[in-house]
């Protein structure tokens, strides 16, 4: 496992702060220089030759900025926080296979949960009564399945109700955040995330400490959330829902997409009906979901 103190940890954090190089380019540099510490010890001439002047300049700037040292100091003073690098066996394999694996992932809670198959669950931020009822029912039913890790983006509305229902049953859940591990988004969800951690859950983000919500962080959240999951379950969705972006990404990566139908009179069901017409699996119960995921007990 990756050490979370010392020179190697500091260099991994510096590596995660680079913006010019893609992950494949970073991995190639690590191979060419002999490792993460050797990369930041390399001369300007070597870096320019291997990565180009623009990347070499950013590597030098990150190396001397003191930002990684600040983050490492914060990490050493903060309980329950850590990070997973691409060299860590706990790193989600599906993310690597999808080509959507950031160099470093931050976490709070039990990172051992990542060994379980992940189902990410989403829905409308302004659900109607039927949608909220479905979120509670599916949360209670799926929360009892200890072989499954339930994931959300902690959006207000459906996802918050679903997560609360999972936690009431004693289920374990994963929440992806669009901000650093020292922040919470949305801020009104702070108590629920504290409950999640108290009950052995997991919070993850690809955003470094010190950075709040941003469009780029939201994009990373969406990418990581879907890349780490085996399947997507849409509990409800309007025609302009963020779930369509998740569903497109899921289809691109060969993930299963499932949707719960609703009333033909409800605007919060039209998005799910559209997904079903486009090929999503219609599910009416947790048993349908477990059968789709081919889990024992379905």
On the 0 to 100 scale, the average pLDDT is 91
**Helix proportion:** 40-55%
**For the report, how would you describe the main beta sheet?**
9 strands, mixed
Number of H/I helices: 14
- Proportion of strand residues: 5-15%
pLDDT under 50 segments (min length 5)?
none
Distance between the termini: 34 Å
Structural class: alpha/beta
Per DSSP E runs of 2 or more residues, the count of β-strands stands at 9
Q: Using only CA atoms, what is the Rg?
A: 20 Å
Shape: elongated
What is the N-to-C succession of helices and strands? HHHHHHEHEEHEHEHEHEHEHEH
Q: Strands of the largest sheet, in order across it?
A: 1-2-6-5-4-3-7-8-9
Provide structural commentary.
- With 298 residues, this protein is an alpha/beta fold.
- The protein is 47% helix and 13% strand.
- It contains 14 helices and nine strands.
- It has helices at residues 6-16, 23-33, 36-41, 44-51, 53-65, 67-77, 93-97, 129-143, 158-168, 190-198, 215-227, 243-252, 270-277, 286-293, and strands at residues 81-85, 104-109, 118-122, 149-152, 173-176, 202-205, 231-234, 256-259, 281-282.
- The protein has a nine-stranded mixed sheet with strand order 1-2-6-5-4-3-7-8-9, sandwiched between helices.
- Strand 5, helix 10 and strand 6 form a beta-alpha-beta unit.
- The radius of gyration is 20 Å and the shape is elongated.
- It starts with 5 loop residues before the first helix and ends in a 5-residue tail after the last helix.
- The model has no long low-confidence stretch (mean pLDDT 91).
């Amino acid at each position: 496992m990756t050490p979370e103190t010392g020179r190697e940890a500091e260099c991994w954090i510096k590596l995660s702060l680079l913006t010019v190089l893609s992950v494949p380019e970073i991995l190639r540099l690590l191979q060419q220089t002999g490792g993460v510490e050797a990369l930041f010890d390399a001369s300007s001439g070597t870096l320019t030759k291997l990565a180009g002047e623009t990347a070499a300049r950013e590597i030098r700037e990150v190396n001397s900025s003191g930002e990684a040292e600040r983050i490492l100091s914060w990490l050493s003073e903060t309980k329950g926080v850590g990070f997973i690098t691409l060299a860590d066996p706990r790193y989600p394999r599906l993310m690597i296979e999808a080509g959507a694996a950031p160099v470093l992932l931050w976490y709070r809670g039990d990172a051992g949960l990542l060994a379980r198959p992940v189902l990410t669950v989403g829905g409308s931020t302004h659900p109607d009564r039927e949608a909220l009822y479905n979120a509670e029912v599916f949360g209670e039913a799926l929360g009892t399945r200890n072989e499954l890790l339930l994931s959300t983006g902690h959006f207000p509305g459906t996802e918050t109700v679903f997560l609360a229902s999972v936690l009431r049953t004693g289920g374990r859940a994963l929440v992806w955040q669009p901000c650093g591990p020292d922040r919470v988004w949305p801020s009104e969800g702070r108590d629920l995330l504290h409950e999640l951690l108290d009950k052995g859950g997991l919070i993850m983000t690809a955003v470094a400490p010190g950075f709040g919500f941003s469009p780029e962080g939201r994009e990373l959240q969406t990418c990581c959330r879907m890349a780490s999951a085996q399947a997507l379950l849409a509990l409800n969705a309007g025609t302009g829902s963020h779930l369509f972006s998740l569903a497109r990404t899921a289809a691109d990566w060969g993930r299963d997409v499932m949707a719960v139908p609703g009333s033909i009179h409800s605007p919060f069901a039209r998005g799910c009906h559209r997904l079903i017409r486009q090929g999503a699996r219609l599910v009416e119960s947790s048993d349908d979901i477990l059968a789709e995921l081919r889990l024992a007990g379905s």
